[in-house]
Amino acid sequence: MADNLARLGQIELFFPPGAAWNYSVSLDVLGAAMEQAAGKPLPQLIDELILRPLGMDASGFYVASADQLATPYIDGQPPRPMQDPDVSPFFELSGIRYSPARATRPASFPSGGAGMVGTAGDVLKLLEAVRTGGGPILSQASAASMLSNQIGELVVTTHGPGWGFGYAGAVLKDPAVAGSPLRRGTVMWGGVYGHSWQIVPDRETTLVALTNTAIEGMSGVFPGELGAAVAAALA
Q1: Where does the record place the Beta-lactamase-related domain (predicted)?
Q2: CATH number of the domain that 174 lies in?
Q3: Which residue, 50, 70, 118, 172, is the most exposed by fewest CB within 10 angstroms?
Q4: Cα distance between the two ends of the chain
């Protein structure tokens, strides 16, 4: 983790803090800050503060054997099983590097932003705890802040106009402006191995889809159609 932070520390800021919003690896930095503040390794902190209180027994930073992991697939014609390492194009000028076996290597640094494995059931436990007020891991105020816009009128560059961002993910402020079929107030995010989730607070509904299809399952046709179908059912 120290090596990763040292590399990040050499990168100049794109803009003054608070002046704009941009996707980043800030959660890795936050994970390192948590370690320093608590004097404990991040996996131990997450286990004590989140996993055990919620009974998320199938989640963690590492697994004992690759047999515990679902086979990941990567976009292609046709889609194919992911290699280790592997790279998938993403946007026009960049790609995402994957290493599925990383989850079997405890020597790999515990990434606060993209370092854990788990099941859909466990993710649902976490999101439902947030949706229903935070107990037993958060105060009601903290849970509410995760589901409400925290960036004012700044543009969420990954989603565009009509969206805000809370401490959990993107928040739909105005479906008409966003051109979205989802309900106002929907909170959503995803993961580069092909995962997506939504919380629809006013309908007391949480949706989790862990597809292991990168990147389609995160930002392809499937999550859009799934979200639209759920929104239509909740109308």
Answers
A1: 3-218
A2: 3.40.710.10
A3: 70
A4: 45
